Amino acid sequence: MSDNSRQAYLDKAREQLDALDRELENLDLKADKASEQVRHEWERRKLELKEKRRELSSKFDKAREAADDAFDDVRSSLEEARKRFADGIRDVRSRLMD
To answer: Are the CB atoms for 12 and 81 separated by under 8 Å?
Structure first.
């Protein structure tokens, strides 16, 4: 992968990560206005999402620092972590906030 396409990929991944962070913040605001039961469940699920977010951040850092020959493997791992985090957010939104 060329340096330009690698940087473009990392820039796009950062944008996606930022969008997911904003979604998490929005869910937190919605939970504040929800019933006590929803707030309680949200707090439990938020801890799971924060763990997934930490994992995603770690994978992103590894992708930025990866040698060229290891980048494809690290990129794949980053994509899997991003998908788990995004799926977790979607699941919480559909179960608790809709």
So the answer is: no
Contact predicate 48/92, CB 8 Å: no
The tokens for 5 are 């396409």
Give me 79's structure tokens. 């994509």
Question: Residue 35 and residue 58: Cα distance in Å, rounded?
Answer: 34
Residue burial 2-36, b: 16+ Cβ < 10 Å; e: rest: eeeebeebbeebeebbeebeebbeebeebbeeeee
Block residue for tokens 């977010």? 53
What are the tens digits of pLDDT across the range 22-45?
Answer: 999 999 999 999 899 999 999 999
The structure's pTM equals: 0.87
Spatial distance between the Cα atoms of 29 and 32, rounded to a whole number of angstroms: 5
Rounded Cα distance between 31 and 44, Å, is 12
What is the distance between the alpha carbons of residues 69 and 22, in angstroms, rounded to a whole number? 33
